[in-house]
Design brief:
alpha+beta; two-stranded antiparallel sheet; 2 strands; 11% strand
């Protein structure tokens, strides 16, 4: 007998610990809004939940932190009012920070994502995922 509810289980091997925190925050946000699914919107909301912009975000009249800088750098000269960014500039900035260089302590094998879906329209959901 098929369940009337959908179940989706996702396993990520090789995730950075910060991603675990992000997904937990997204799950909390989904629950707070009465949802039992974590959606992309919940992940976006978790990404911007901190009122302080990330240190790498451009600041008015300040030098721009580059991807070559240490990730955990704390520099007072990089604090201040943030620069508004159009979407295309934000995408470029994120692409710049998503460098090809490996970080120290990465897992020995590449990251993978696997999933299982069950429910009345599971076949359609699986087909949509596999098409992308």
């Amino acid at each position: 007998m098929t369940s009337e509810h959908h179940e989706c289980r996702v396993t990520v091997d090789g995730a950075a610990p910060a991603l675990v925190l992000l997904l937990r925050d997204a799950a909390r946000i989904a629950t707070e809004h009465g949802r039992e699914w974590v959606t992309t919107q919940d992940v976006f909301a978790a990404l911007i939940a901190d009122e302080q912009a990330p240190l790498w975000w451009p600041r008015v009249g300040k030098p721009r932190l580059t991807a070559d800088e240490p990730v955990n750098v704390v520099r007072a000269d990089l604090e201040g009012d943030t620069v508004p960014l159009p979407y295309n500039e934000f995408r470029s900035l994120v692409a710049e920070w998503n460098s090809d260089s490996p970080t120290i302590g990465e897992p020995a094998t590449p990251a993978t994502v696997s999933y299982e879906i069950s429910g009345p329209t599971a076949a359609k959901l699986i087909a949509a995922i596999e098409q992308s």
